[in-house]
Amino acid sequence: MKDVRICFIGESFINGTGDSTHLGWTGRLCVALSQQGYSVTYYNLGIRRETSTELAKRWQAEAERRLPSGFDNYIVFSFGTNDATRENGRLRVELIDSVENARQILSTAKQICPVLMVSPPPTADEERHPRVKVLCEHFFTLCQKLTIPYLDVFTPLLNSSVWMAEVEAGDGAHPDAAGYEELAQLVQSWSAWSNCFNSL
After folding, report:
1. Alpha carbon distance 10, 45 (integer Å)
2. Average pLDDT, the chain
3. Which has the least CB within 10 A, 33, 43, 99, 126?
4. What integer is the mean pLDDT of 35-59?
5. Rounded alpha-carbon distances, angstroms, from residue 27 to 7, 8, 30, 98, 112
6. Do the Cβ atoms of 161 and 122 come closer than 8 Å?
């Protein structure tokens, strides 16, 4: 079995904030791969409260140090919730800038190795939902143009009683283990994810 190296890059949902098991959805995916017999080196590069503007400045150096040539390397991105947050009466990152940041990040990343993009998930902040939904739609269009697989988890998780109940019972943004298990299951059932490993 070839050596698989995966960088998960983004903010608190990549980090798995709120999960009492400290696995998040990214850790659960890698546990499942290991149980299937894959040799996985897993890098969690999530930083809480980070916007796409901040992410754009640091992701490449961090990823390239962890993804040397000669291995089966992958990058999974998920970000955007913090961009759509209002602070002091204004968005932390305007929509047009979020999309441009994503374009720069993804177009560069796909030159390094195969890339997947997972949408930001919902929080308990209903006022923010429309902004995140619009951002998801723009990210989907961008990924189509760049031929990068994109998974919408915002919609199914918004309709998930488990995810929303855990978010509301927690800090209003992050679920506990059962919520992250739901997100992990969405990615595991995604053909773009499974296709990465079928040929190994």
Report:
1. 7
2. 97
3. 126
4. 97
5. 11, 10, 5, 26, 23
6. no
- Asked if 122 and 158 touch (Cβ cutoff 8 Å), the reply is yes
- pTM as predicted: 0.97
Coil, helix or strand for 171? coil
* Range 151-155 average pLDDT: 98
pLDDT beyond 90 at 10? yes
Beta-carbon contacts of residue 90 (< 8 Å; ≥ 6 apart): none
Structural domain including 105 reads 3-198
Q: What is the CATH number of the domain that holds 129?
A: 3.40.50.1110
Q: Give the 3-state DSSP-derived string for 91-154, with helices as H, strands as E and coil as C.
A: ECCCHHHHHHHHHHHHHHHCCCCCEEEECCCCCCCCCCHHHHHHHHHHHHHHHHHHCCCEECCH
pLDDT of 199 above 80: no
Question: Phi-psi bin for 76: left (phi > 0), alpha (psi -120 to 50), beta?
Answer: beta
| Tokens, residue 94 | 């305007």
pLDDT band at 1 (very low <50, low <70, confident <90, very high): low
Number of domains in the chain: 1
Instruction: Give the count of alpha carbons within 13 A of 48, CB side only.
Output: 5
